[in-house]
Design brief:
- This protein has five helices and no strands.
- With about 100 residues, the chain is an all-alpha fold.
- It has a single domain (about 25-100), classed as Cytochrome Bc1 Complex, Chain D, domain 2, CATH 1.10.760.
- Mean pLDDT is about 80; it is low at about 20-25.
C-alpha cells in the first residue's frame, strides 16, 4: 500500500461508517418515536398501551398501514403512521419483532 492510498482508504472508511451505522440502527431510531407511549423497546410500564415487543413484524406493519389509511378521526397514531414510508414501517416492525 502506498503512502497516499492509506489516507484515502481511511477517509473512505470514515465516510462509509455513518451509512453503515444508519442501516443497522434505523429500526430502533424510527421506533424511538413510539417509546413514550409504548415503553422503551416496546414494553410499556403504564397500562392502557399495547405491548409492541415480540409482535410479528408483519402484524406491526399491517396495523401501522391501517392507521395510515384512516380517514376519520384525529388520533395521534394516525398522525404518527402517516409520517413514515413503507420501508420505514417495515423497519419499525422488524425492530419490535426482535425485542423480547
Amino acid at each position: 500500500m502506498t503512502k497516499t492510498s492509506a489516507p484515502c482508504l481511511a477517509a473512505l472508511l470514515l465516510l462509509a461508517a455513518p451509512a453503515f451505522a444508519q442501516t443497522v440502527d434505523n429500526g430502533r431510531l424510527l421506533a424511538s418515536n413510539c417509546f413514550q407511549c409504548h415503553g422503551t423497546n416496546g414494553k410499556p410500564s403504564v397500562g392502557g398501551f399495547d405491548r409492541l415487543a415480540g409482535m410479528s413484524a408483519s402484524e406491526v406493519y399491517s396495523e401501522l398501514k391501517e392507521m395510515q389509511g384512516k380517514t376519520v378521526g384525529n388520533d395521534i397514531m394516525k398522525i404518527h403512521a402517516r409520517g413514515y414510508t413503507d420501508a420505514q414501517l417495515r423497519a419499525i416492525g422488524n425492530y419490535f419483532a426482535a425485542q423480547r
